[in-house]
Specification:
Layout: H1 6-18, H2 23-30, E1 33-34, H3 36-42, E2 43-49, E3 52-57, E4 63-69, E5 74-80
Antiparallel strand pairs: 1-5, 2-3, 3-4, 4-5
Length: 81
């Protein structure tokens, strides 16, 4: 099966993970940042396609996506669908 987004996502993943982003750095660039346990408290995860994750916000059922970096694992840039 062909994924037309694979090369773009691979490039984005390399860019995101090229420099370890601290929480403070990510917050300055993207706003709200979640670690894994914070993400699990606030969202239900329905899928991953690095560097993106598809989520549903528990408080109001809003579905959306956000990006993540690998190490340290932080999620950021929530975008409702």
């Amino acid at each position: 099966m062909s994924d037309p987004t694979e090369s773009i996502r691979r490039h984005m993943t390399k860019e995101i993970n090229a420099v370890e982003g601290s929480r403070e750095d990510l917050e300055a660039r993207y706003g709200k940042v979640w670690d894994t346990s914070e993400l699990q408290e606030e969202f239900t995860v329905s899928g991953f396609m690095a560097p993106f994750v598809v989520v549903c916000r528990k408080s109001d059922g809003v579905k959306g996506s956000m990006a993540f970096q690998h190490d340290p694992r932080f999620y950021f840039s929530f975008s409702p669908n």
